[in-house]
Structures are given as C-alpha cells and as structure tokens.
Batch of 3 targets.
Target 1
Amino acid sequence: MGLVDYLYYDDRRLDSYIEQFASPVTFDKFAEWTASLSLAGPNGEGKQTGHARPLTKHEKVEEVTQFLVDKDLVQGRPCGRQRELAFVDDTFSARRFFIPKHNIAIWMSKPAKAPTVSHNDFQVTYFIEDYTQRGNHEGPPSRYSGYSGLYLLSEELERGNKEPLRDLWDEPETGKLAFIRDPIGFFTKVGAHVGPTQNIRTVYKFRASSTDLDHPDGYVLCVIGYPLWIERA
C-alpha cells in the first residue's frame, strides 16, 4: 500500500459520520513489564495495556470508507437526476478554483463521456469544499455551507446582469447557478485563483444534478457534490 497525498479533507463531516457508528478514539496496545527481587531470585511479570488516542485523519478515512462499503452506500458515477444517490467513489482529472472574496473553493472535472445512450453526452462534476469549518480554507469560516454560498454568489451576479441567467434547475427553490452554463466565464468574473490540472480520486456526497439539453457540445450532465476527501490519484 502506497502513501496517500490528501489535497482536501473534510474534518467536520468525517467526524460527524464517525461519531454515528464508531468511537473517535483508538487504543494502541503494548506490553508492559515489571521486575522485582525476592529471596527466590529476580522475577518478571508482563501485562498488556493500552493508550487511548484520537483517530488520525487516514484512520478516519479508512473507517468511513469501510462503513460506506459495508452498508452499500457507495455507487458508481451517476447517470442522471438520482435523488437517492448517497456517495460516489470516482477518479477524475480536475482543477481547483478558489474565490478569495467569498471563500469558496470548487474542483471542476474535465468533461467526460457520460454513461448515457448518446455518443455526444458529457458529464461535468463539481466538488464544493464545504468551508463551514475553520482551518481548511484560506479565509475565515462561514455560517453557510459551500452550496449555499455558491447559490448566494450566483444570485449576486444575476442581479448585476441585464438579462437573467438561464435557469437549469427544475425546482425554483434551488436557484440559478451561473457557473453551470459557463463555468470558466463565471470563475473569471469572480476573480477565482485557478490551480493546475490534477488527477484526483474522491469520495463525495451527492448534492444535486442538472441536465443541459441545449448545450452546444451536446447533452451535458452536471453533478454537484461535497467531497469527504480528495487525494492525488
């Protein structure tokens, strides 16, 4: 087994899951020996004892992964609007976009052939780093989830446009997310810092999906999720 290079790690979400099915601490067992002297000569006695310590990040990842697999909660790449989809384990070529002003970080996968019927179908997956926690991001923590922050930013941009953004979502309450139609243009407008293309593996919690039937490149499936962690593939 090789070493894992974590590029992102959601402490809050992993801790929340661990607390529901396991202990957040583990015990390192070791032998403890004692020696004494008596009229019969020296003698020794050994016993096994343990030392409690918090789980490491990697141990939490392994615990959660095993739980999701055992409960059959991990599925393959989604192929449409699947509300009951829980977690997805997949490997992508992606880039990270960080928006300093709003403290939002999003990984965007390169368009890939979607697992649908037409040969012109593509899928783009967006992984939102949930920044409601302190320590994972360059800016201060927020009361909003990553998805809600993105929604509010999209609404802010829409109010500044002369024409309303095209709504790609069925539910009115979900709102209009501008980056779906023109992600590069969206990231440019908001002054995002762009990272290099990297091959990553992630287990992410499915959040939403949308289909763009009128995209010039053909049918495009857009999937949004919260990564539990991202590692270099």
Note: Residues 133-137, 162-175 have pLDDT under 50 and may be disordered.
Target 2
Amino acid sequence: MAQTDPILAETERLHGFFQSLGAESVEPSLLQPADLLLDLYGEDIRARAYLTPDPLRGDLMLRPDYTVPVVQNHMQAGATAASYTYAGKVFRKQETEIDRANEYIQVGYEIFGAQDSAQADADVFSAMWQALDGLPLRVQTGDMSVLMVAVGGLRTTDERKAALLRHIWRPQRFRFLLERYAGISPQPESRRQLLAIKDPLAHSEHNIGLRSAVEIGDRITRLHRDSQAAPISKTELDLLTGITQLRETYPNILAQLQDFAVDLPAISVAIVRLEKRLEEIEKRGIDTGELMFEASYGRTSMEYYDGFVFGFYDNTGKDFSLIATGGRYDALTRCLGNGSHLPAVGGVVRPDLLVKTRGQV
C-alpha cells in the first residue's frame, strides 16, 4: 500500500477542519486578471508573478494567493455574510533562492460580513491556533489600524494625512514624508523647482512625460498650499515615532498606548477595539498575557490588511519560516465591491512548512 504524501494529508486535515467550522469550500480560477492583481499588490509583484498574454482576456497571472480572487468572487456574487475555505496551489517566482518553492499549497479560512469585528478576528485567530496543533511556534500580532487612526488624528491638513496613509505600507517613504511635514527634512530639488514656477501654462518645457501644463499647474497649486501649512509638531512626531516602534506583550502595549492617548486621543478608538479583541481571544482559551504585539507588523508584507494582523512562525530552526498568516482586510472588499463592502478577515496556512516543522519537533 502506497504511503500517503504527508503534505497532502496535512492539506486535507486543514481543509476539513475549516469546513467543520462551517466554511464553504471554494476554488477560484488558477488564472487571474493580471491588471487587477498588479493594481492591488503594486508593481513589486510583477517580478515574482507568472504572467501570460491571452488574446481575448488580456494579461493573466497564475494566482499568487487566494484571498483576492475569493474576495472578488464573493463581492460579485452579492455581498452577504459567509465563510469560505480553500486548498490549492499558489505561484511565486524565486529569483535568488533556488531552494524556496515557486509553487506551494495554501489552505485558508475567510469570514465575510460578521458585524462584531472583535469576535470575527478572534474566530479566525483561534482557528489558526487550533489548526497548528499545539506546535512550538512563535506568534506575532499587530494592528494596522492603530497607526492609521494615529495619522488621522494629527493636527495637519487632510492632504498630508492622505499622503501618509497612502504610504503607510512603505516605512521608509512614510518616515521621509513625516519628517518633511515636520520641517526636519529639506524639500527635494524637484519639488523646489516646481514651486519656483509661477505660471506653469507659460512653461510648457516643464511638462513631464504625459502630464500637461494644466496637470502640472494643479500639482504646483497643491505644493504651494502644502508649503504654507504649519509643520507637524515635535510632540506629534515623537508620538507617531513611538507608536511605530511599539513591540511588547499586550499588558505593556495597552499601558503604553493609554499613555500615548493622553496627547493623541484619536487612538482611543483603536485601543477599545484592541481590548475587545483580546477579551474575545481569551474567551477561546488562548492566554494573551505573553502574546506579542508589534505596531508596525505587516507594514512591508501585508499591504491589503488594514486592521488586526498575525503570523505564526517556525521556532524550531534558523529560518523562522512563516507557516500561517492573516488579518483583517475591510478596505479590500470596498475596492472590489463596486460600491458595496463588507467587514472581512481571514488567514492562510502553508501545509508543507507545517509538515517540516512537525518533523523537527
């Protein structure tokens, strides 16, 4: 009798477990529209994506993950409360590390439309915790909304807040903008040149690429308006810097956030959400006292997440492989919903890495 492939056996176990929680099994198309995925993930994924032209459908991409097509299919079918699970291959090119898989199985669990976000966050996190079967893993959590509401509470212009939020997943660019708005960093030379133009319509030689003089004029108007705005205060700069650097267990994190809220009261709403989530996680039998929270967790690798985020890492070897990851992505449903949106949260597991970790214990 042939021995069962342990990865396939683990895939079936995980898939069955999520189905036992009431999730409907779905299988989106292997080929996905490339333009949509490039818009959502950014051009950075192009180097790692398997792209192919189609004479009728345009550029297509072998699915790099399941979440986006599952969200798109659900929103197109009529946005209602639902939960899904899936199990199949995803594809990513590996340009530098030959030993890293360029195709692997992903098993996931997604919840749409739950009105109590704290309960839904805890349900997905607890499901992942149970699915990983008590292995000695390092667990990391975060919450993108803490930094987002902190930016929203700054005493500065809406345009500056929008720019900071747009680059919140790019820490270096975010920091550069923050310091520029605080008057610490000098204006870039290109920006100074545009500000020096008094009448853009009379300077057609300043057209850049496909931008017309009128478009550049609009840009210059915004730059002049920004240059007249008061700088972000040192107090608020220090508060945002402190928030981005938060990394502690939850009891200490809550105490530090309460201190920050004295001078930045906007984050109080994020603190309340965090406390409710912790209560719900505790109800599911998970001790949060030693659970790690990092305010910047997910900023470089989880771009469509906008709330609670988490990752489970192999703690038995030297590579600290990311075995399971997930979080809340309410904004993604709005982006793909054609005018409608739903609260949504989910997570995915790598069965191959789970099998590897189990073999090392």
Note: The CA atoms of residues 87 and 107 lie 4 Å apart.
Target 3
Amino acid sequence: MTDSSFTIDAHIEPGADVDAIKLEMVRALTSTPKKLTPKWLYDDRGSELFDEITKLTEYYPTEAERSILAERAKDIAEITGADTLVELGSGTSDKTRTLLDAFWDRGLLRRFVPFDVSEATLIEAAAMLAERYNGLDVHAVVGDFNQHLPKLPAEGRRMIAFLGSTIGNFHVEERRAFLGALADTLEAGEWLLLGADLVKDVDRIVKAYNDDAGITRDFTLNVLEVLNREFDGNLPIDNFDFVPLWDPTEERIDIRLRAATPCVARFDALDLDINFGEGEELRVEVSTKFRREGITAELADAGFEVAEFWTADGPSGTDEADFSLILARRV
C-alpha cells in the first residue's frame, strides 16, 4: 500500500465528436494535396511499431534525448524548483522517470500530470508511478494537446515537458500557435522542457526514417489499415509505396504514401469515394529539424526565454550535435 493519490480527468469521451472527426477526415482526403494528421498513426499496432522504431540503431533521437536527460535531470530540478511536472504525450512515461527521480530525490515533487490521448495507457502508467513514488499525487489527463491544454491542472509551480521532438511534427504556423498556447497555459516563472531534433548530416536523418528493416515503412502503411477500419474503407494498401523525402527548404523529413497505379477507394462511414491518380501522394507526417537560433527565436516570439540549451553529441568523428533539450522560462 502507498499514500499516493491517483485521479484521472477525461476530456475525450468514447464516441464523442464523431461528426467532427468525420468532417476532419473528409477534408483531409479531399484536400489538394491529400494529407493526414499524425495522430492516425498511433493505434495499438502503430504504437507497437513506433516502440520498435525507437530501439533501432538508425533512429538516434530517442537515445540521444535519453542521454541528455540522464546527464541533466538534476540540473533541471535545481534550476526550475518545480513541484508539479506535466508531460504532454506521456505514453508510459518511460523517459520521464529520469526526471521524476531527480525531482523526487530533491524533495521537490508533489504532483505529476501525465497527459495523453490513451486512457488505458494513462491508467496503467499512472498506477505504476503512484506505487513507485510513495506520496506523489498523480493527476492524469486524457486529452488532445492541440485542444485541451487549458484543462491542465493549475496547482503548484509547474514545468511542462514536451519530449521526443514531437514539436517537429507541426508545420510552421501550427507550431507557432501551439507554442503560443503553451505560453498562455503557463504563468510567468513557470517552465517548459522541450526536446528538439537538430539539423545534421542529411543522409543520417533520412536513414532514421527509412530503416533497413522496413519498420518505419510498416508503421506508415499501417495508417491505411487504420483508415479502412475506422471509416469502413477499402483502400488497396498494397498499391501504396512508402516515400520519405528530405525537404531542404523547410529542413524536414516529409513522409508520404504514393499510389503506384490509379485506384478508387470507398469509405462507407464517410459516404465518400476517393480517387488516387498514378503517383498521387497522401502526406502523412513531417518531422522538422531545428537550428539553435531558429527554435530559440520561435520560443522567444511565443513568450519564453531560453535558460539552457543542452545537446547530445553525434557519432564520433563528427562535430555535429545530434539532439537538443531546451529549458525555457515563461516570461
């Protein structure tokens, strides 16, 4: 038995906003170009595949970020003095335990707020964390961080952690709006811990999204299985090729699925027929890579002052940094 408390706020109800979701999907599939939001990648199978991706040799971001956290967690706890740690897109809170341990060991931590779209994952993780940290208040929130940031508990002195370079999945205008929403959520003097992948050797970046085992390909193609299942569709999955592209202007990976031959798909749940021409693409996800001056300026525009900018070294023999962890204070 422990003295920890565990509560959960659910802002995504099963079956809620069905009409809005259908409208969003119709717009996505009838736009020019056709494009999805990354959330459709993460059903149970997609989440399993992404977990495999994070363990690949080619996929450097996870271990690079983990190494910075291991080295700097105590510094983060000392600098921020936060007693409430919020993690957006928390999942199982695996990497965050390094932070939790550092805050806990300093006697600072009073509350942990894991925030994720999956209620089942949150319940499992929150129960484990409440058991591990005796006396910790675990206040889980089921929500979409694009919609429900204002629902975050406001108690205590907070630090929001947004790790994994998920910030790179936003397009420029979306990123500006999201950082602004984060700033609006925090009070002056509260903190943001942001993981951001960095511009480096392009071949190495592309390899991270086009691994030899084909797991990233399977992960991306799984989104078509999701669409067919969720919207009673019959997209011919075998007709689509996985296409990871490097966009040198935007400095980002642009992941697409390309129709090898013309095809027509029916989505009964949407009452919608979709035509794909030969070579037509469905845009699935972007992953922007950052330069220090660029992301620092974006944070400043949103109302944050960068206090620390830590990096993980790239492979030996190179002078490029792999990944950054940025600690910024709301001004």
Note: The chain has a mean pLDDT of 92.
